[in-house]
Amino acid sequence: MKILLAVDGSKNAMDAVECLIAHAGWYRERPAVELVTVHLPVPKLPNLSKVVGRKELQRYYEEEGAANLARAAKRLAGAGIAFEKRVLVGGIAESIAAHADRNGCDLIMIGTRGMSATANALLGSTATKLLHIARVPVLLVRYAPDVKSAALPHAEHFQSLTSAGRAPKIFRSM
User: CATH fold of 2-173, please?
Assistant: First the structure.
């Protein structure tokens, strides 16, 4: 199984990383992971190319992307899960969905804040948009408020929380 794990350096993204690590044993074989972050393009301003060249802009995207991927990459490596890191530039939901299609991913996994339906309708959501445009299943991971990713240094601790009835709230769309 190939899983696209989208992260942005946030606590919610790390919750998805912890969920993947905790459930990696559920699969017949260890999943291959595409660890992805997406950077919105820098707005095109008049004469910007005279000040900032294409190479500098690409270096900026790579540096920002590396910072967003660092914690997740460290956790996955520590758990022995193989992954490929990717920094994409473009619309967030669109870039994730397109990358999943191009790379034969079987599942997209993303952490979410879990806003209420009203807040989601008013503000919109990357996760909601992704659910609508992705051609592969999308797994949204949102943990209950009393569970903090910082309190989950090991999968064993996650298992004890799960058995204590404070399991992650996971929503899936196909």
Answer: Rossmann fold (3.40.50)
User: What confidence tens digit (pLDDT) does each residue in 110-143 have?
Assistant: 998 755 565 555 445 888 899 999 999 999 998 6
Ramachandran sector of residue 90 (left: φ over 0; alpha: ψ -120 to 50; beta: rest): left
Residues near 21 by beta carbon (within 8 Å), at least 6 away in sequence: 75, 76, 79, 81, 155, 158
Q: What is the pTM of this model?
A: 0.75
**Residues sharing a CB contact under 8 Å with residue 40, sequence separation 6 or more, in sequence order:** 89, 90, 91, 92
- Adjacent-strand bridge partners of 169: 142
Contact 13, 38 (CB under 8 A): no
Question: How is residue 3 written in tokens?
Answer: 């899983």
